[in-house]
Amino acid sequence: MLDACIHCGLCLPACPTYLATGREMESPRGRISLLSQWSSGEQEMSPRLAEHIETCLGCLGCQTACPSGVQYESILNIARPYIAEQRPPAARHLMRTIFARVLPDYKLLRLGGNLLRFWQQLNLGALLKWLALPSEEFARAAERGELVNPVRKVLYRLHVMESLLPRVPKFKPLPRQSWNQGEKKGTVQLFSGCVMDVFYNHVNHACLRLLKAQQKIVSVPQQTCCGALAMHSGEIDIARGLAKQNIEYFEATEGPIVVTAAGCGAMLKQYGELLNDDNEWSQRAHKLAERFVDITEALAEGDFQRPDTSSFSRRFTTALNVAYHAACHLAHAQNVREAPEKLLQQAATAIGADKMRLVPLREAEHCCGSAGIYNLINTELSMKVLERKMDFVQATGATMLVTTNPGCMLQLEAGARERGLKLTVLHLCELLDAIFCPGGSD
Fold this sequence. Notes:
The chain is an alpha/beta fold. The protein is built from 25 helices and 8 strands. The strands form 2 sheets. It has a 4-stranded parallel beta sheet with strand order 2-1-3-4. A 4-stranded parallel beta sheet has the order 6-5-7-8, sandwiched between helices.
């Protein structure tokens, strides 16, 4: 797989980290060169080499652009466990605990969401910001490279992380099964996700309403974390364990499994590859992986009734200029491009040009810098990538930016706040819900 790279450089314009840094080692071919040297024994997997690989967003833009068919994702997945071994033991232990114990425990996640919501209601983020932002003396010491108060460092780090978070909505459980009156057009299973259902619970409800509007019976079976964050962090054993749990849960169900988050969908569709070497689970994993579909794929196959334009006009009092950011794990990882564009065109036609206009976004398929927990681990580089994305967003004059992944929404909302833009960031299904399910979100 490494030898397939001919180092032509056509991947460079598609790589957000290379565009942000201009460094060859932060490009796909640079990383492949390093991994080739490591694979041949010329280089050890040192912390410095691992750092260059770990700064990869995993957006797979390079894989789409590559004329030689380099399987960059597979290369990255093979290298990730070795990179994980280079992390400080305490940091790795914390990450593994979160992936294995916290994310799969929905009750614990909801408790954390409620506590965070309480924190935001009390506006404690303003207090953290006041404690964390450097004083003039602190800033001068940092510029000189002198040792600064480690407590201030921790507080500043916490402030940066907290500033990235969206407003957490009040949690409303999804019904285990929804029923429609009249004609039924099949049963689908809904994969609600873990982080998705805490930070963007209202989006899951919008997705459910849209599926019901297309006369689908929607079931929400027992499930657990998809394992994407563990996989991307190189903790393959945890990802495989979570995959096996989901296989057991969903094997007892029938019909397509609709996924509301692009990142989850990309992972779930890879279950066959993840467990390919496991004789007991391989066939079951491949069979289940074929049932997963993104919410945009599911909705694009159905039909909506005529919208209530008066209800839409009451919610959005001014005409909307809508731009679309294509989530990497939808466009590049799943190769789903036509479905969201079809839905957007359908929405614009239904509402009318006087109320909604689609505006093109330059580099719409380029990563925003979120990439799972990348913006928490590589915050500085993540913000550089986001800065380029927000430059293009701002240039569109858009008043609304839609996408299909919670990580992207979180990152883009933070970018809009940082710039003070009057920009509403929504999941595509929130926009469709406002058009085709009037009053459903009230």
